[in-house]
Amino acid sequence: MDAIIQKRLGLKELESKIVTADEAAALISNGDVVGMSGFTRAGDAKVVPMALVERAKNEKFKIDVYTGASLGPEVDKYLAEAGVIRKRGPFQGDAGIRNLINSGDVLYVDAHLSHNAELVRQGIIGPIKHLILEAVAITEDGFIIPTNSVGNSPIFAEYAENIIIELNISHPEALVGIHDIYVPAEQGKREAIPMTDAMQRIGDIGIKVDPAKIKAIVISEEPDAPSLIVPPDEETQTMANILLDFFRDEIKAGRLTKQLMPLQSGVGSVANAVLDGFADSEFEDLVVASEVLQDAVFNLIDAGKVKFAAATSITLTEELQKKVYGNLEKYADKICLRTQEISNHPELIRRLGLISINTALELDIYGNVNSTHVSGTRMMNGIGGSGDFARNARLGIFVTKSYAKGGAISSIVPMVSHVDHTEHDVDVIVTEQGIADLRGLAPKERVPLIIENCAHPDYKEQLWDYYNRAVEATGSHQTPHILEEALSWHVNLAKNKTMKKEVAKA
Amino acid sequence: MDAIIQKRLGLKELESKIVTADEAAALISNGDVVGMSGFTRAGDAKVVPMALVERAKNEKFKIDVYTGASLGPEVDKYLAEAGVIRKRGPFQGDAGIRNLINSGDVLYVDAHLSHNAELVRQGIIGPIKHLILEAVAITEDGFIIPTNSVGNSPIFAEYAENIIIELNISHPEALVGIHDIYVPAEQGKREAIPMTDAMQRIGDIGIKVDPAKIKAIVISEEPDAPSLIVPPDEETQTMANILLDFFRDEIKAGRLTKQLMPLQSGVGSVANAVLDGFADSEFEDLVVASEVLQDAVFNLIDAGKVKFAAATSITLTEELQKKVYGNLEKYADKICLRTQEISNHPELIRRLGLISINTALELDIYGNVNSTHVSGTRMMNGIGGSGDFARNARLGIFVTKSYAKGGAISSIVPMVSHVDHTEHDVDVIVTEQGIADLRGLAPKERVPLIIENCAHPDYKEQLWDYYNRAVEATGSHQTPHILEEALSWHVNLAKNKTMKKEVAKA
């Protein structure tokens, strides 16, 4: 056996379990519920799923796949397109499986990421037949060390009948020690989560299971699919500046200090750009407590702005991944990977007072946010952790450009076509046009702020026209709407390729 | 001074603060933000607000009123109709103020009840000029003892500049000792809430403030407005039985035990009837951890079914109030009144694994729930605590009759006209027709359960017709809808007084 494998496989009794990916894949049967590691294309099982793809060429079978969050193409493109996935949860972000979800070929259970563990405990997700878990090592004392994400793997490992390990030796051994695995007991028999500071470690360095559950170990060198975020553009830069000015105002008002509060920032380019904006700012000693650490966080650590960053996954562009993996020792005491149950736990988000920044697909004049469904029907990615954070954060911020498709779509509409975050959960909205601070305001007080500060100039008049007529029509109800027209902007878009009214009339 | 007043006013230095209601009301100025005690028409300030109503006959002034939850008619009818209330939060349930909210005369900030305390700490609600607080006593060591609700009074007391006490001697002194007041510190500086069992007491028997803040004490004998719940009818009885059978099935499946988990049941007749259903059941040693204790809970204590019940308010019908107040000693070690921040805290709801039962106004074929807005625009009561509980509960149940207005309205519609609880937060739906267990299901899997098990027979065909055409029109998207038609049932209702399609055509 390779020296490197011998070194990574500390628990010697497991050496006999080393098999090929095909042999491991053969353990999986039609109808199985399969848990897989992976969160935002990081730390996902890859070689066993690809062996399943091969197997599917000669055999018809289907499985249910539950993960931490989105996976790379091995599962969410190739395995899905091979027709192997019957049901998928709780999050995805790949065009391959997305198309199958929106054609009725794959059932998709889009769920709050902090809820999954409870559903596993109750057996609503499950019984889990197999967990396929990418690991960087198994220590002598039997800790399975995940790679660059934790996600739901610890709770899957606790409840799964069998565990298949993908021992991925392309990840550096220096990852050992950065994980902090804490799994609450059953509801009603559980202690308070013993964390009062986002920088605290409260658990183990890895996942402890009965070694007899480990049925196969496959050696892998497959790298993660790299992060797909695009660099900041002028508009995301503007949004970042608007947000920084807002934080400055909050400090002046005595509601925040220069260290702010632990920051959560959602997956994606806008959120990443917003974080990037801190690099040249006066803010310091920042702490990140998020679900995913993207490039910006490591740049902020390098810049001395962020002193600690915890999440459940690290998703980097290829270039930054090389840099971070080459200097992991430098970051080791400044980063920490937790389970998604902990990174997204309402108990901790509320206690620690997080500032949360997530991306909206569209929002309405009253502050309701759609973050999942294009035109109300077509699933984009999923709600992910945005609900966990927005609902419980000290400050729940949503960011979006005010328009899409070159101006044919207004991100601000009379009524969102699908609601993921209600008016009660949205504190602040930022577009490249400006900011609307909705805290403490009644619906009708929010309207002028959202239209005047955040909507694209092309749509302001049209929004005011709708609102004024809705007030008139209802006699100024709590939330004025004209139900015949509330979704007409989306209908117009489908028919005339634009939300602009003049074009519809023409 | 009356002996009874002397006895209730333990802190003797406060005797000089006793004034008339008019004198106390004179302390309040135009533009003030005023906190008031009271939650579900229990423990609310009454005589000072009525003095404000008198004052408003000769003087134009407006104030913002924040409370625990809904108040009796003194504030939410008379004070509102006197034109004194500019803004109101976070909950109401009176036709008087409701009409003013829906005519644009009163601004209404409908909010999650667990969120208010954080907003007070941040100064988003505030600065609070006065708190008007109904108390049953002030002890020698300076604890202000609220009457039959706690609500937001402790956090208001901490942040208010002035406190006006309504010392209500019609409440029995035996209330002293049933409160358990625990107020978390600021976010980021806070410990875990030290409760791992719903029966635990973690705080003080009353509210401690700097006595210098108490600017006036008014003696009152005004009783609370009695609870308005109506007795169970055949249909609510049926819903209760369906729910009990569901719990039995959960026990068989190993997901619950005969003690169930701590029960939360929302305000209202349906929820009360469901609880009543436990009286003749085999369930025992039940614990209630709710926001309000209605008649049913005391009946269940009497029947030996409930061993402990905690909430933030006790709201009883006149008859039961007499019985309970006459025997308070009997209940003293079995009940407990907490702040609404604690009764509704996500941290505790999740940790303790609550079963939550709340009322829906309408719900859609995918499981989204509207619990606040009639036809999407007109505010009914508010979201109250339903979001705190449904989101974080182990089991989030919504109950509603399948129809309203004699069948002209279907409570199950293609798309709800307003969303308070998204598809991600609704586990189980119960109508008098049956039950839909939505846990772990994708949107399209939920549809047949909701239509077949829960919809009224008069509307099943019409719902299937919409759904089937929506699947066809979208090519089976994640959440099929026809946006032109999604809200047409409400439009039909407005135009033709019915959601039935045939009538619309006729």
TrEMBL record, chains A, B:
Q: What is this protein called?
A: Succinate CoA transferase
- Annotated InterPro entries: AcetylCoA_hyd_C (IPR026888), AcetylCoA_hyd_C_sf (IPR038460), ActCoA_hydro (IPR046433), ActCoA_hydro_N (IPR003702), NagB/RpiA_transferase-like (IPR037171), Succinate_CoA_transferase (IPR017821)
GO terms (molecular function) for this protein are: transferase activity
Q: Keywords in UniProt for this one?
A: Transferase
Instruction: Indicate the segments annotated as coiled coil, or none if absent.
Output: none
Family statement = Belongs to the acetyl-CoA hydrolase/transferase family.
Give a Pfam family name.
AcetylCoA_hyd_C
Organism domain of life: Bacteria
Report domain Acetyl-CoA hydrolase/transferase N-terminal positions.
12-218
